[in-house]
Amino acid sequence: MTLDQDTLRITLLGTGIPNPDINAFGTSTLIEAGDQCVLIDCGRGTAIRLSQAGYPLGVTDTVILSHYHSDHYAGLFDLLMTGTIQQPYSNRGGPLHLFGPPGVQDVAEGAWLATKPDREIRVADSEIDPDHMRVIPHEYAEGEVYNRGGLKIIAIEVDHGEFIRPAYAFRVEYAGRVFVHSHDTRYNENLIRQAQGADVFVHEVAAARAETLAHYPRIQVAIDHHASPTEVGRVFTQTQPKIAMLTHLVMLPPNPMTISEIVSELAEEYSGIVLVAEDLMTIEIGKNISLIPFNHGGSGLQHKPLRNRD
Ligand SMILES: [Zn+2]
Ligand SMILES: [Zn+2]
């Protein structure tokens, strides 16, 4: 099934945190609109999730990073290296364009060095063009990061803690449709201002029981970098998205809070419906908004042949 010209399609490839979890890989979101296709963040398992969803790894040559925590770019090497192999499952036809906050140059240079041994073998075997294993860095600041073919991606500076600056949320606009993803942040007024009018607003959340915090003080550091359920409730109340959704649930062991408990805390500040994201869920924002679970044909399964590049 082709994508309707006025439809913005979002595939939540990864909705997890650093904890290795087969059901929730690191953050990664595929954005499709018209003839445009962009990946935002590239956490653990991005290549696996793309493939599960029916996309070749070379479906896009553009990755935008929100910030430099590992759960948001640990999957980059796999996408970069495996993506260069000239097979239907990969087949990126050129270098990878990487948009990131300051530091993106280091990632690009480091990737070129780290991939050298593999690259030399594959070049000797006439298997790949070495230039395809290059990362082209593009440093961005708050504001418009991407504007092509009617798809606009706007970076919103958020507050993810004093040593993680800058960190960004993204507002994605296409044909009057608006999708906002908080990525990692505390309660943030700048995000609230720029998330107005969203069709779908996906926000992170973190919570831990008081007794867990008392026994494991290190957990407090992680919790302090994120938004609590009641804070997320306030964000949704102040932005009134058509669809409000939670992702990147930081629920640390032992004895983590349940999703029901988190949602009921959030309800103290927000009375609307709240959904919980899962890996491989597709969101289509067109004449209406549909949320399609993977097992019901979500994401690329519907149009696998159309997205292969030559
Ligand atoms: Zn994260
Ligand atoms: Zn983070």
As a percent range, the share of strand residues is 25-35%
Element-level helix/strand string? EEEHEHEHHEEEEEHEHHHEHEEE
Shape, principal axes of CA atoms: globular
Number of domains: 1
Helix content: 10-25%
At the fourth CATH level, what is the homologous superfamily? Answer: Ribonuclease Z/Hydroxyacylglutathione hydrolase-like
Query: Overall pLDDT, averaged?
Result: 94
Biggest sheet statistics: 8 strands, mixed
The rounded distance between the terminal residues' Cα atoms is 19 Å
State Rg. 19 Å
Question: Architecture in CATH?
Answer: 4-Layer Sandwich
Q: How many alpha or pi helices?
A: 9
Main CATH class: Alpha Beta
What name does CATH use for the topology? Answer: Metallo-beta-lactamase, Chain A
What small molecules does this complex bind?
zinc ion
**Overall strand count:** 15
The largest beta-sheet arranges its strands as 6-5-4-3-2-1-14-15
Secondary-structure map with pairings?
Layout: E1 8-14, E2 28-33, E3 36-40, H1 46-52, E4 62-64, H2 76-83, E5 96-100, H3 104-114, H4 116-124, E6 135-139, E7 143-148, E8 151-158, E9 167-174, E10 177-181, H5 189-194, E11 200-207, H6 210-215, H7 217-224, H8 229-239, E12 243-251, H9 259-266, E13 274-276, E14 281-285, E15 289-292
Parallel strand pairs: 3-4, 4-5, 5-6, 10-11, 11-12, 12-13
Antiparallel strand pairs: 1-2, 1-14, 2-3, 7-8, 8-9, 9-10, 14-15
This protein binds zinc ion (2 copies).
Provide an overview of this structure.
The chain has 310 residues and is α/β, with parallel strands linked by helices. It has a single domain, classed as Metallo-beta-lactamase, Chain A (4-Layer Sandwich). Helices cover 24% and strands 28% of the residues. The chain has helices at 46-52, 76-83, 104-114, 116-124, 189-194, 210-215, 217-224, 229-239, 259-266, and strands at 8-14, 28-33, 36-40, 62-64, 96-100, 135-139, 143-148, 151-158, 167-174, 177-181, 200-207, 243-251, 274-276, 281-285, 289-292. The strands form two sheets. Strands 6-5-4-3-2-1-14-15 form an eight-stranded mixed β-sheet. The chain has a seven-stranded mixed β-sheet with strand order 7-8-9-10-11-12-13. Strand 8 and strand 9 (167-174) form a beta hairpin. Helix 8 packs across helix 9 (259-266). The two termini are 19 Å apart. 47% of the residues are buried. The model is unreliable at 303-310 (pLDDT under 50).
